[in-house]
Write a structure and sequence with these properties.
The complex is a heterodimer. Chain A has helices spanning 3-7, 20-26, 34-38, 49-57, 61-66, 78-82, 89-102, 109-125, 130-141, 146-159, 176-187. Chain A is an all-alpha fold. The model of chain A is unreliable at 2-14 (pLDDT under 50). Chain B contains 13 helices and 8 strands. Chain B starts with a strand and ends with a helix. The chains are: A mainly alpha, B alpha/beta.
């Protein structure tokens, strides 16, 4: 894990081989383009998935980070299922998001804050509380217009009593101990998780 | 039949009607659900980019609690994202010795241990395979004939694990819909992505996915879903999708157990139908 994503404290990064483990995941890519043809979001991407995998294998970190391709992966797993080489492409997309968030890439700030504040809420309460999550997210965004994008939906949900406000009956199971243990395990020199999954 | 029950966060808030309808339909079918005591968030799609180990450990924590209750039990999961996360953790515990060790080192911090002995089952899997139309048909007391239902499966109950259906051409909902007397709306969009969290983070892309599904549903009386994320994208964002498409894409969207419950004669209160965000007046008049 990149501990500052959870704790908020900045760290420095050695970027030179940040992408190498992902390159290993997709190294057997034959550039057939089945991923691109299968991707529901390919038309909104600047690089096609096929082209991006090539850049990942070549280690072209800044080109990959500058693109919005991986951030537009919606985890549908169609490419993963169809890849004739059986490569874990959705998992590789997730790992690229992780690198972009750790590098605090400015063009991916909104996604990073969305994921980051989500996990902070889980860490604090054990379950997602929509009000706590959205409040954290809006505060982190520091963009006064952002809440208004969600306001009509928020009001609709509140009207239906569908927003967990954090009142008396809700369960609170803090998970800080688990988060900290994971961070500690990941700081050990032996990388915990390799391929698979 | 008995299952352990993992509702997941959405079913306690924005998807409360999915929780109500699941419990009501299961009770009416004679299935016992035991909610996992002290369950916590599966990590959704937010944990994995930050850390694989965190994602696996958050889900494994729930598997460990389930094992304490019934070591050889099965967990019923209605949310597709929760289902996939719990299933990934289950796979890691069963098939990857090194991951199992790491996960349990992490879980030791909260005094738990998981082996992967409980099976993780999606609600649709249980409805279609364990119960099936054969078991449900005798419970139908009210024919829904005249309704055309578009079965929307979404992604994560089908992929990447082809557990109970064909991920390219899913059909598992069709016998269940037909058992209610309704007809199946034939379409290609049933297993296409709803845009997931892109609807929030990149609406210009996410809403296009919503638009194309709503357009493909034209001709159907309603869409049924089996995931709170899919449901929210298809019902709550309908007005915005309509504005983007420049046409009215309004359609009723229910959770699958709500449809089954209606045909089983359960009240709309029991099924939480007042909580849905997209129930057209015409549908309401016909059904309630």
């Amino acid at each position: 894990m990149h501990p500052h994503l959870i704790s908020g404290s900045p760290t420095t990064h050695d970027d030179s081989d940040a992408m190498a483990p992902i390159g290993n995941l997709v190294n057997a890519c034959i550039q057939c383009g089945t991923c691109t043809a299968s991707c529901p979001n390919a038309l909104e991407m600047d690089l096609t998935p096929r082209k991006m995998w090539r850049l990942v294998i070549l280690g072209r970190l800044s080109d990959v980070m500058a693109s919005r391709t991986f951030i537009l992966c919606s985890d549908c797993y169609t490419c993963t299922l169809r890849c004739p080489r059986g490569l874990p492409l959705t998992r590789a997309m997730e790992a690229l998001k992780g690198i972009a968030f750790a590098r605090r890439e400015t063009q991916h700030r909104r996604s990073r804050l969305f994921y980051e504040t989500f996990m902070q809420t889980v860490r604090r309460y054990g379950r997602i509380r929509e009000m706590a999550f959205m409040t954290r997210y809006f505060t982190a965004m520091k963009n006064p217009a952002e809440p208004f994008r969600f306001a009509p939906l928020g009001l609709k949900l509140m009207g239906k009593g569908k927003v967990e406000m954090g009142g008396g009956k809700s369960t609170e199971i803090p998970l800080a101990a688990l988060f900290e243990k994971v961070a500690a395990l990941e700081r050990t020199p032996d990388k915990p998780l390799g391929k698979g999954g | 039949m008995n299952y352990l029950y993992y509702p997941g966060c959405s079913l306690t808030a924005s998807a409360r009607e999915y929780d109500l309808a699941t419990r009501a339909v299961m009770a009416a079918a004679g299935v016992d659900l035991t909610e996992i005591d002290g369950w916590t968030c599966c990590g959704a799609s937010a944990a994995a980019p930050i850390s694989d180990l965190l994602s696996l450990s958050l889900s494994a924590r729930n598997l460990a609690l389930a094992e304490q209750t019934t070591a050889d039990g099965q967990i019923l999961v209605p949310c597709s994202a929760c289902y996939l996360n719990l299933k990934k953790a289950h796979e890691a515990l069963r098939s990857h010795a090194k991951q199992r060790t790491m996960i349990n080192e992490a879980l030791a911090a909260v005094k738990l241990n998981a082996t992967g002995s409980v099976r993780v089952r999606h609600l649709l899997d249980v409805l279609a395979v364990d119960l099936g139309a054969r078991h449900l048909a005798p419970l139908i007391t009210r024919s829904l004939s005249g309704l055309a239902v578009a079965p929307y499966y979404g992604c994560q109950c089908l992929r990447p694990y082809p557990e109970f259906d064909d991920p390219e051409r899913p059909v598992s909902m069709e016998p269940l819909i037909e058992a209610t007397g309704a007809s199946v709306h034939v379409w290609e969009a049933g297993g296409r992505c709803c845009g997931a969290s892109l609807v929030s983070t990149h609406p210009e892309a996410g809403l296009k996915r919503v638009c194309s599904i709503l357009k493909a549903a034209r001709g159907a009386d309603l869409i049924v879903t089996v995931c709170p994320m899919c449901q929210m994208n298809l019902d709550a964002w309908q007005p915005k999708a309509s504005r983007m498409a420049g046409e009215d894409l309004s359609i009723t969207v229910l959770y699958l157990p709500q449809l089954l419950g209606l045909a089983m004669g359960l009240s709309h209160h029991e099924l939480g139908l007042d909580l849905n965000l997209a129930v057209l007046g015409s549908f309401r008049e016909k059904m309630f």
